[in-house]
Amino acid sequence: MVTMASMASHFRTRAVDLRCLAVVFCAVLVPSFAELQRFEHPIKSDGSLSFLVVGDWGRKGLYNQSEVAFQMGRIGERLDIDFVISTGDNFYDNGLKGVYDPAFRESFTKVYTAKSLQKQWYSVLGNHDYRGDAVAQLSPILRKIDKRWLCLRSFILDTEIVEFIFVDTTPFVDSYFVEPDHVYDWRGVEPRRTYVSHLLEDVELALRKSTAKWKIVVGHHAIRSVGHHGDTPELIKYLLPILKANNVDLYINGHDHCLEHITSLDSSIQYLTSGGGSKAWRGDIEHRDNDVLKFVYDGQGFMSMKMTQASAAFAFYDVVGKVLHKWKIPKQLHSAV
């Protein structure tokens, strides 16, 4: 199997011939119905793992993106983070125009400049990313421009104690396929029914086979949210039953430009929204009774998490780095492997 890592190494060490270009083209554009691609990231020598989560950010430093990035750098240094997770909507308003779009540098490389943020970024696509050249964000060429960048539609990140399943949630949403005001880049997704069906099979297989102490699923769209966009019915119908059946601990998303912590009434899943990377303050929080709302902040910010075999501790920060909410989950009270 051709992996993103092997392709990047190939591009660094030799000229690209037409046959290799064809392989890259097929890998990016053709839906893969095999097992999800897997990446590994080591934990620290003390057995812990620390990372930041930010979403809905790419605005060339505007709307307080730079201020959030500064605080991410400060907290990232304090926690000695191992990597950063992006929950999508990486480039506004309409994704990238291509692999050499200057917006990539202007919204990513030139904004997240702190030393602590010069770690691997693991990213998924959001709906705004699909409004541009979605395939460009998946290209190994961007990894040559900035080695931190890794964005795929769906994939697995194995960190020994935690297994992350990144899920491409945009193709689940019915409205994107009928709305007249925007054009989406569905290359590699259509036929949609087949794509979503196989993706669900891949996610279920990955979760069922996982022996990790913790299971975390990351997507752009919320399953549960009291923010502007609210719950995503398609994810509740198709994805949530798989998460419940396989003892997933956390579902992390962006999409709503706020910070949220919601606990489930009928499972051990905790729903965490980190979508405050830049433009926020919608002012239309709607409290619902589906699950238990522990915290919501209708503003800019990000999330940190530190995990061990025994516990997961997370915190939400605002644009000046103030801790707004923190929570610790002991594993013995959560899903057992």
UniProtKB/TrEMBL annotation:
Keyword Iron in annotation: yes
List of residues binding Fe cation 1: 56, 89, 92, 257
The record's remark on the cofactor is: Binds 2 iron ions per subunit.
Q: Which residues form a coiled coil?
A: none
Gene3D superfamilies per UniProt: 3.60.21.10
Provide the catalytic activity annotation: a phosphate monoester + H2O = an alcohol + phosphate
* One of the record's GO cellular component terms: extracellular region
- Example of a GO MF term: metal ion binding
Binding site residues for Fe cation 2: 89, 127, 220, 255
What family is it from?
Belongs to the metallophosphoesterase superfamily. Purple acid phosphatase family.
Listed name of the protein: Purple acid phosphatase
Q: What is this protein's gene name?
A: LOC18609996
